[in-house]
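Q: What structure does this chain adopt?
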Amino acid sequence: MATHHVRRCAVLAAAAFALPIALGVAAPAFAESQHSDPFGPACASVPKEGSGSLAGMAKDPVATAASNNPALSTLVTAVKKAGLVDTLNNAKGITVFAPTNAAFAKIPKADLDKILADKAELTKILTYHVVGEKITPKQLTAGTFKTLEGGSLTTAGSGGTFTVNGKAKIVCGDVQTANATVNIIDTVLNPM
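A:
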């Protein structure tokens, strides 16, 4: 009789575990842990191989990965001037909205030089581009996220077309690095 009780408990435990999976209850958590392919028009210009490629960037922490992407050299210079390389490379599960060189070029040179020379202001601007959590493309459709700077930014859109704060366009999104998700944007964001 005790043997039947043990077997019945084992069968019930197995059914209790299998039933939610069969009903798809556990599936969303698994699906959200998976990431989609990068999207956006600028993804086509990312090198196809080497450390600056999408596969190469996935092997390195975010600041190192960005330094291997020629379109992000101004951002990398700014990150170095602000002393944020180690902070970004050691963070876990963050999302970085990374302005391209063309985004920085929209800022008048005198203004950009002034920002690059002011470490406190530069740090404020750069940390406004970082969210302390992994943001999926699904969350970008209508999201509000707290930044490391302390403010918040908003995202909107669908498919492969998203904006940040209603102004910056994500030109290559959901790029994975060893410790971060990167959304490359066409405009430098200003803390609110």
